[in-house]
């Protein structure tokens, strides 16, 4: 088999290799797979053109012309399917279209491969006289015109679909789409020019494959400059499934390539397509690029916009694990921050107020950790607030018992163990509503012991769940001592009264006996 190398054949070979590499590269990304299939079909078209252009054997040239029809007839269906896929049309509809779109190409391809029996695809095939590569002129038949009408219908329809969709996407995505348009437009223009003249005019040379070099360049530009089929698809679901979350997509050069309306509202005029993160100021001394560099979640106060935003940075990787960009998520936490600030102010007011109460008070949360310890409690226990607040595991029982054990305040919570209640089974616990109280003698707090009156009360959230428990302790040692002294005095008086009564009874009896004695003497 003799082959003649020509400048045209070299161009076609280089383009077929380039388009095949790009097609297989994109196919591995598993995104918009109809576009890489389009590139592979174009690569087959160019490869077949390379073979047909350089071979000298006429039968071999005709065979490769038929093979080129496979690529030619596959390009436009793949283009139409890609336009549907890129425009976010439902997959179920695309699958139905995919079943029927290949019927006409199969019919036309059958006409091409069986042309020698009916001449319906090429009415006549003749060599060009004097051509060094035995170039052939293919006179067009019915099958060729059927192919033209079907292909251009798909091309125009696909363009209309993408033009309509272009109004709904960002500027970066429109640049991607425009780049693809430019890459595919030139071969279609050349193809239109080729079919606008008679086959004899071009001396057997199909000028369409010559434009494939432009397709390769623009496809490469779209892939490597604008990251087509990589960064935008990888995060598209994230953008539209979190409408209440601001999303900004950036490439590896920290350039904004896409964002949603929530992000625009949060960052206002600072956010536009193609802007560098270094130019987006969150505060006078902090840019969005600084957040990327720290690679950690941060809550930022946008003072100029009177907003609080919680910023999360997530890496975007391709199927091979290579970093292709980042998704920056913005959560508007202004309401939460305002509530938190008011709660802190309320807590401070409560803390300042209870600090001056004469009774010792401390508060624990549901995790049994101390959250408040007032000055009176410091004076009673000799334990500073800063040394006990935040401590758990019954650390607050040490000043009272010298060991870890449940306090009365622990009995407030619903999840209290039965063993905790067992410690108080012999104590006289009084319960009035949610409040429980106990009078107890403590041997640890003071030498010789001290009598305490202990009160415990729950604090509920809006759902009725206990979130805090307060314990108040009052020193009733003096009152108890006075009570004991009064009791002793009463017992003493009672004893004295008993003695006096007994003495009076004895005197009455003695008098009665004297009276009887007097009577007996008189008799």
UniProtKB/TrEMBL annotation:
Give the species.
Candidatus Falkowbacteria bacterium CG10_big_fil_rev_8_21_14_0_10_39_9
Q: Which residues cross the membrane?
A: 6-27, 32-51, 63-84, 96-114, 144-165, 177-195, 201-224
What reaction is this protein's catalytic activity?
Answer: ATP + protein L-histidine = ADP + protein N-phospho-L-histidine
Which enzyme class, named as a word? Answer: transferase
Q: Does the record carry Iron as a key word?
A: no
Entry annotated with the keyword Coiled coil: yes
Gene3D superfamilies the record matches = PAS domain
Residue ranges occupied by any PAC domain in the UniProt entry: 293-345, 438-488
Which PROSITE patterns does this UniProt record tie to the protein? Answer: PAC, PAS
User: Which key words are in the record?
Assistant: Coiled coil, Kinase, Membrane, Phosphoprotein, Transferase, Transmembrane, Transmembrane helix
Per UniProt, residues of the PAS domain are 346-391
Q: Name one GO molecular function term.
A: protein histidine kinase activity
Descriptive protein name: histidine kinase
Coiled-coil segments: 473-520
What is this enzyme's EC? 2.7.13.3
